[in-house]
Amino acid sequence: MSRLTVVGAGYVGLVTVACMAELGHHIVAMDVDADKVELLRKGGVPIHEPGLTDLIAKHRERIEFTTDHAHAYRSGEFIFLCVDTPPTASGDADLSRIWQAIDNLPPDEVEHVIVTKSTVPVGTGALVKAELDQRGYRHITYASNPEFLREGTAIADFMHADRVVVGADDPAVAASVAALYQGIDSPVLTTDVASAEMIKYASNAFLATKISFINEIANVCEATGADVTVVAKGMGMDRRIGPHFLQAGIGYGGSCFPKDVSALKQLAGNSGYHFQLLNAVIEVNELQKRRVIGKLKRHLGEELRGKRISLLGLAFKPNTDDIRQASSIILASRLLAEGAHVVGFDPVATPNMRALLPAVTYAASAMEALEEADACVLVTEWSEFLELDWASVKKTMAQPIVIDGRNALDGPALAQLGFIYEGIGTRSVG
Ligand code: UGA
């Protein structure tokens, strides 16, 4: 078993801490945020990720949380960089936290492998290695080990990964990093650093492309009378296409797809290549978030001023409190701009949203959000919304209009109850 240092106690860092501890390793997790470290020391976890609190608690004796970077760096044979790389104003990835981590490396002669899990532009590993060489840190080697974790299912994604990708120029370094994953039943792909970095971007960009593609098909379905849910099913039965990431809706959000698609576009542009397809993927996604407004106007009239619109779900997807780039933000902001009275509810993301959009009214339950509503928009398909007593919902709403932004509700059943139901790319009923 090895000693690992994990730099950055965000989503990726904490899941790496918990899962690597589950695999038997000893971890020192470092973060610059003293409050966060204090909370983690007391057994709290600052994010909502199913199973994470329990898994960290289970291995508490193998995990140390600290703000002391010198101590943290000295402790690990492997130093996992899990810091965030948010988009800059130009759409590039902000690598300042990666460079900060490199600056903090102790100038001792102890051997370490730096393992980058953060999503970084292709070429970053080469730059880091050049910097290490320039500083004379020949005892420090480098590997890229991108993560493919989805928020909400991150622990299962780690422990049952479709693949583990390790990029390193030295096969011995690649083998040492791959060996850390012993205990999980996943194929390991070892490659060069640049290709490992590109696998991460290309995977996210392809999944985002699949979503924008099916969203455009959905929009054409609406215009032609086809039903996108059946179309996606029929397409997905072709093994070359596959059934995943073909759920039409009100666009993708989150901290990864928007950022990574934009960063890949910039990366291509900076290298002199115009990545046309990604422009369309981004534009389709932006327009998709706004399509619900048109649907509401079709049912409520052009004037949304004073209309009470209930938004069910604010997180960018279920089982997370993350609202980064969530479609709910654009939707709520557009509705507020139209003068509508927006009432939102989310099982866990409400505090995050309240801080961002205080002009929205936040309800304490889904039923409260639906009281006297002129229309309801399902924004995030939390299971509790699918299981609502819709007969009671019908009684509490002022007008029985449901726009299903995720095609997750049973439209015909709602129509039976007297609702006017409209999904994305499906036939309206009621
Ligand atoms: C995504 C990738 O799926 C992970 O493999 C990757 O590791 C991660 O980004 C990352 O780069 O860290 P995540 O952002 O957590 O994971 O969420 P997804 O489940 O991929 O969903 C992203 C967005 O796409 C959500 O807003 C979701 O509602 C939307 N989506 C997803 C659709 O609109 N349709 C689909 O068919 C699937």
Largest sheet: 6 strands, parallel
Strand content: 5-15%
Give the strand line-up of the largest sheet: 3-2-1-4-5-6
Give the overall shape.
elongated
Summed up, the helix count is: 18
Cα separation of the termini: 61 Å
Quaternary state, please?
single chain
Architecture overview:
The structure is a single chain. The chain contains 18 helices and 14 strands. By secondary structure, it is an alpha/beta fold. A 6-stranded parallel beta sheet has the order 3-2-1-4-5-6, sandwiched between helices. The chain has a 6-stranded parallel beta sheet with strand order 11-10-9-12-13-14. The radius of gyration is 23 Å and the shape is elongated. The model has no long low-confidence stretch (mean pLDDT 95). Bound molecules: uridine-5'-diphosphate-glucuronic acid.
